[in-house]
Amino acid sequence: MKVIRFFFLLGLSIFLGYSLNRPWGKVPALGHFLNPFEGFWQNATPRNTGLKSPKTIKSKDLRQSVDIALDSSHIPHIFAQSDWDLYYMQGYMTAKDRLWQMDFQTMAAAGRLSEILGKDSLILQFDRGQRRKGMLYAAEKARDAFMSVETSANMLKAYAAGVNAYIDQLNKKDLPIEYKLIGYRPEAWSPLKSALLLKYMAESLSSSNADLENTNALAWLGKKNFDLLYPLMEKGQIPIVNKTNQWKQSTNLQEAEIPFSYINMPLDEGPNPLNGSNNWAVNGNKSETAYPILCNDPHLGLNLPSLWYMIQLQSPDINVIGASLPGAPGIIIGMNDHISWGVTNAQRDLVDWYRITFLDDQQHQYLLDGKATPVENRLEVIKIRDEEDFVDTVKYTAFGPVYYDRHYRAEEARSGYAYRWIAHDPSNEVLAFYKINRAKNYEAFKTALSYYQAPAQNFVFASVDNEIAMHVHGKFPARTNHNGRFLQEGNSLENGWKTYIPFEENVFEYQPERNFVFSANQHPADSTYPYFITAKKYEYYRNRRIFQLLEEKEKWSVSEMMQMQNDNFNLQAAESLPFWLNQINTEGLPHFHQKAFLALKNWDFHNEAYEKAPTFYAAWWKELYRLLYDEWDQKGLPLLKPSHYTTIKILKENPDFYFFDLLSTPEKEDAPAIIQLAFKNAMHKLMQEEISGKKLEWAAYKGTYLQHLTRIKAFNIAAPVAGNAGSINAATQRHGPSWRMITALHPEGNKMWGIYPGGPSGNPASPYYQNQVEEWVNGQYREIPFFKNFNATSNYEIQHIQAKVK
């Protein structure tokens, strides 16, 4: 019996030793993960949570000592004696707080998730899509452009050296918890990884397009209906810059050739259509301080760790503070001693699709200008964890990489769809931000912008010289009429991008008479602008609310700007709900429906967190929109539905529009009938949800939360914020203001207030992981100290770290 017991325990020990030290599917190796000396327990120690930072950091790559101050929000303020040491320590401190985020985001950008996550058909499809759209190719070209200029090359080398210094001193126990969960280690940082991060942002902000969907819609609807449902610019909109007849030249816009055939294949998902932002600035004539106030809040995915990393950078020729991107040197949104700036996304179509005609089944050659032209094959090797590599051959043409072909989603042997994207072009945004960070006046800022290409942004500017400006800037193709709005034939170079809008002819505004500038992803210019402009979508509501508030108030204070950034007024509801309510006959409706009707009738159109009326409106609109476009859902083609603004306009002005008739009923419905039916359906669904226990107060119903990049629910954080997609406080369930910033400029010293949904640390066990979430939800701000020098930090409760040469 003892022998049997011995062998049983021996076998159990061997089994446990084996099973606990290898991953099982998506489950990590639990032996390593649960190890009290190296596993996840170590991520909760004071050393790794940031509660106890080291007093000194030693590195052989530093050239001189560097002083670092961590303020009460745990924001690092770096004081260096050279640019090399400044960006070195920016890399080090960012990696200290956000290493896994930096690593994972660039792996995703490069199409390398299979390498760390293993075999999975959806992950492999994602990786293939990244390679086929040319993400790695574009990053390599950008890296080469960065490294060809000494200034940007040194920035990236120093930053990478700092990141790698942090990685090299990591023990297994100190690895971020995500590495332990997934079971891998970080690889060395490089300038290519920084380039990948910037292409990741370009993909999010400048790859949105609807060429293929528009082509289908035009072929299906005909030109008359297409123009009605998808207008280039709606009447009554307020562009970013309105300079009627003030543009320098006019361009003869020739009609582009438009193919009239369907594209019937599943398309990869594009960037979030809600990606956008607000920014504005008032000059001293509209400010209680007599100097400019500038505001910015980029609307992006509400992820954890936060997209942004706050930091101050000071060396002999720079003193700048603001939001950086983990993985790239410098400040993206912020201020220095002289100027402040911010960005919103410029809604421009910077992707064109071309139908390629191959001349052989092997797709070695394609037709171009009447000649057989060889493709350039790029072998994309996708490593798969614990599996053989997957090799995808991507064919490059004069119009970019062939994204869809018979090897990926499309079926035709001799047809493909090439993807021409502005971010494929080499550019040097690192150098642009280097110069923006150091700009001392408007002319220097404008010169810095000339180095910037993608993603296209609306740059707001203010200075201590009482200047304000707005520049819609990027590298924009000079398009012919409708060029880029539909699929084009890739059989002639004449259809490609031949010229670009000159820098001085991009849309801009300097010192306007109204004393303010603003943007919120709306149309950039009035109809007299000489170049053809198109985009997948524009914003129609936030921008007009911002304009209304800025125009009607004579003087603004910083506290009033804070209130404005948190404004929850729903302009779409204000313009549509009265009309809808007039179509409702409440007689005979259930009690719940009648209560909802009364709540909507008495609503002031503010999407406040504690009210039910915003929920009633949102549910009604969702159902109405679904019913109106049932034909789109049943068509079985990639199609883009008309905008909310256009839909509401047609409901009011053309209630008998034939598309309002439901396919599923024998009756012929008009707008009033559809509005009534949508109300009944939506309220019935809400009634059932309330009976089942779901809360209908707006914040609870919307359910905003911050999602960790691993999608592990335990790392998520609830954020019951007010607002909606169309309000200035544009918060939806998974999307919203990723950083709220207000700067007040003054010759005696600039000040900054800011807040973001998360915290500096990427460690879920750290108190600095979510130390700003509650204030962000409540619309509160923190004043962010901006130190003139290191000695000034002595007046604050602060942790001091000294980096020394080893």
UniProtKB/TrEMBL annotation:
UniProt binding sites for Ca(2+): 349, 351-352
Active site residues according to the UniProt entry: 277
Gene Ontology biological-process annotations: antibiotic biosynthetic process
Claim: Coiled coil is one of the keywords in the record: no
InterPro entries in the cross-refs: Ntn_hydrolases_N, Pen/GL7ACA/AHL_acylase, Penicillin_amidase_A-knob, Penicillin_amidase_dom1, Penicillin_amidase_N_B-knob, S45
Domain of life of the native organism: Bacteria
Keywords assigned by UniProt, alphabetized: Calcium, Hydrolase, Metal-binding, Zymogen
GO molecular function: hydrolase activity, acting on carbon-nitrogen (but not peptide) bonds, in linear amides; metal ion binding
Cofactor requirements of the protein: Ca(2+)
Cofactor note: Binds 1 Ca(2+) ion per dimer.
SUPFAM superfamilies, sorted: N-terminal nucleophile aminohydrolases (Ntn hydrolases)
A Pfam family it matches: Penicil_amidase
Family named by the database record: Belongs to the peptidase S45 family.
PANTHER family (alphabetical): ACYL-HOMOSERINE LACTONE ACYLASE QUIP, PEPTIDASE S45 PENICILLIN AMIDASE
Name of the protein in its database record: Beta-lactam antibiotic acylase
Organism: Persicobacter diffluens
